[in-house]
Amino acid sequence: MIKLSFYKTGEYIIICPMINYDEPLYRPPSEANSLIIQATLGCSHNRCTFCEMYKSKSYIEREIEDVEAEIESMSSYGKIRRVFIADGDAMALPADKLLRILIKLNTTFPSLQRVSIYANPGNLLKKTPEELKSLSEAGLTLLYLGIESGSDLILKKINKGALFSHQKEAIIKAMANGIDVSATIITGLGGKEFWHEHIEESARLVSEAAPTFLSTLSLMISPLTSEPFISAFENGFEQQTDAGMLEEEKLLISLIDPPRKIIFRSNHASNALALRGTLPGDREKLVEKIDSALSGEIAVRPEWMRGL
Ligand code: SF4
């Protein structure tokens, strides 16, 4: 039996009683029905100034035998169709270890349809095309990549450890080798001073790299990260209002012009307005919905219901 636990993201996470999770535990909104397997703990980068997710943990690669035993312990738990490999950037694991995990997942769960993982551009680019292809063939279907911004100015300020060129190369490389990419951009990240630069460069990056999925999150500054984050903005950081972030979303959607269809979602718990559609096909419909929210015609999610 799998139980549901209410933790951290403001949404339910499937917590298996057979697995002793190392908390805090995070997963993307679209992995709400996935079994989470922690192959690594924490984040190998852990230096993005806005991010508090894994500040309480040191990065560790778990013993592969322990991960395999954990997967085995789930063998009698009915039909597992989706697995999410955590923590923050489990793609940092060497390809041979990831392959062992994928093989174990496939042999343990005959109904398995999708395996996904968090990645960052640095550890994705360290993998060779051959390694990515073999991971894809072993069942790794989807990478979640927090690109956050396409602007080099913002990427340096937030200490992302990757610039526009790295982000673009990472997305294209993964997709060329058979792995879908779900990329995220954080609205509000440039504050009121740099929002045009942030959004225009993000739209250019998304248009040129054309990930399979794109989603947006809204910036939420926590007390733990506010000092390092804000100190990078020499003139101070004036936070965007809800309306400002909706204007950012509107400009982003208006500017994205990809060579192939991108599935767009803005369903994260941090967002004031949930949006879904494809780009560029649904551009007008999405912009209309944002305009309705800006004019007060439709309600935005109350602040007390938002979270990370
Ligand atoms: S945003 Fe991602 S890469 Fe950056 S510190 Fe947080 S988990 Fe790590």
Q: What report would you give on this structure?
A:
The chain is α/β, with parallel strands linked by helices and 308 residues long. It has a single domain (3-305), classed as tm_1862 like domain (pyruvate-formate lyase- activating enzyme). The protein has helices at residues 64-72, 95-108, 121-126, 129-137, 152-157, 164-176, 195-209, 226-231, 242-255, 283-294; strands at 3-6, 12-15, 35-38, 40-41, 60-61, 82-86, 114-119, 140-148, 180-187, 213-218, 262-265, 276-279. The strands form 3 sheets. Strands 3-6-7-8-9-10-11-12 form an 8-stranded mixed beta sheet. Strand 9, helix 7 (195-209) and strand 10 form a beta-alpha-beta unit. The radius of gyration is 19 Å and the shape is globular. Bound molecules: iron/sulfur cluster. Iron/sulfur cluster (SF4) binds next to loops.
Tell me the structural class. Answer: alpha/beta
Q: Mind describing the biggest β-sheet?
A: 8 strands, mixed
Q: What ligands does this structure carry?
A: iron/sulfur cluster
* Helicity range: 25-40%
Radius of gyration over all CA atoms, rounded = 19 Å
User: Beta fraction of the residues?
Assistant: 15-25%
| CATH fold title | pyruvate-formate lyase- activating enzyme
Number of strands: 12
The whole-number mean of residue pLDDT values reads 91
How many separate helices?
A: 10
Strands ordered across the widest β-sheet: 3-6-7-8-9-10-11-12
How many individual domains? 1
Distance between the termini: 27 Å
Low-pLDDT residue intervals, each spanning 5 or more residues: 1-12
Shape: globular
Under CATH at level 1, the class stands as Alpha Beta
CATH architectural grouping = Alpha-Beta Horseshoe
Order of helix and strand elements from N to C terminus = EEEEEHEHEHHEHHEHEHHEEH
Chain oligomer state: single chain
Within CATH, the superfamily carries the name tm_1862 like domain
